[in-house]
Amino acid sequence: MEHSKRNIKLALLTIVVMSLLVGCKSDGEEIEQPEKIYYDQAQARMASGNYFGAIEALEAIETRYPFGKYSEQAQVELIFAHFMNSETEAAHSAAEKFIRLHPRHPNIDYAYFMKGLSSYTRDRELLIRFTNTDISNRDISGAKQSFAELTEFTTRFPDSQYVPYAKQRNIYLRNMIAKNELAAADYYISIEAYVAAIRRANYVIENIPNSSENFRALKILENSYSNLGYSDLLNDVREVLNSNYLNEESKQTSDKKSWSWNFLKRSKPEEI
Questions:
Q1: What are 246-251's contacts with CB under 8 Å, separation 24+?
Q2: Is 132 helix (H, G, I), strand (E, B) or coil?
Q3: Between 231-244 and 214-228, two packed helices, what is the crossing angle to 10 degrees?
Q4: Which long-range contacts (CB under 8 A, 24 or more apart) does 38-44 make?
Q5: How far is CA 170 from CA 28, 86, 120, 266, 270, in A?
Q6: 136 near 176, Cβ under 8 Å?
Q7: Which end of the chain is more exposed for a tag (fewer CB within 10 A), N or C?
Q8: Could you give the CA distance from residue 171 to residue 256 in angstroms, rounded to a whole number?
Q9: Are 77 and 90 in contact (CB under 8 A)?
Q10: What is the distance between the alpha carbons of residues 231 and 225, in angstroms, rounded to a whole number?
Q11: How far apart are alpha carbons 139 and 102 in whole angstroms?
Q12: In whole angstroms, what is the distance from residue 99 CA to residue 110 CA?
């Protein structure tokens, strides 16, 4: 009798322990799913704007099926998902990783494009987009990097479908960089450091010749030469202004509408 009671207790204890082990497993480990289910989940989540969830599904493919059927496409779409989730550093890193691992992939142009686009996105912020906030007087080192990377992209892939967008973006960035240089020149003029102002204005004219700020740069030179008494250089600048910018005083250019984020779409998934 005593022996049978002990057996019943042992059996009950075994059941309890097994239940706890199963419970721990179900709570701690996610059941692995087929690769296509993860991919379909990612597509559905991106379609609904759930980019955080899409990243989770795409990273599951990358981790669990690194050589699978959907692995390379998942890595491409991970760039876009990170970007749309405002994780621009992660998007840039994902693009660099894809370029390193798959230099001959059909979507390699998209990776280069998104790499350049991800380097500078401060103008994507709602507060900046819907107010008159001028971001040209802030730190724009990222804008310079983005300009360089998008220039590399257009040089490498002149026939890419993304080239028109990259060129539009670079016009916007070029004007911003020029404005940043001239914001510094304006400061130097305010403290009567005219030589430093001349250096900034000449940099814009010589190195960013097609920006929207050429007229403003020439006016800074005119002001600086006048205050320094450089009459020959002053006459030269005024001659350029009269020849090329006669009606510019009343027409101030603006690049506020030269770029829109609304075009951005994922790379087209390959037939798998």
A1: 248/215
A2: coil
A3: 150
A4: 38/64, 38/65, 38/70, 38/74, 39/70, 39/73, 39/74, 42/74, 42/77, 42/81, 43/269
A5: 48, 21, 11, 20, 28
A6: yes
A7: N
A8: 11
A9: no
A10: 7
A11: 33
A12: 10
pLDDT tens for each residue of 171-230: 999 999 999 999 999 999 999 999 999 999 999 999 988 888 999 999 999 999 999 999
Residues 50-68, buried b or exposed e (16+ Cβ, 10 A)?
A: bbebbbebbbbbbeebeeb
CATH superfamily placement of domain 35-263: Tetratricopeptide repeat domain (1.25.40.10)
CA distances (Å), 95 to each of 53, 152, 161, 179, 246, in order?
A: 19, 14, 17, 29, 46
Apex 227 CA angle, 226 and 233, nearest 5: 35
For residue range 230-254, what is the model confidence (pLDDT) as tens digits? 999 999 999 999 988 877 664 554 4
pLDDT band at 97 (very low <50, low <70, confident <90, very high): very high
pTM above 0.90, yes or no: no
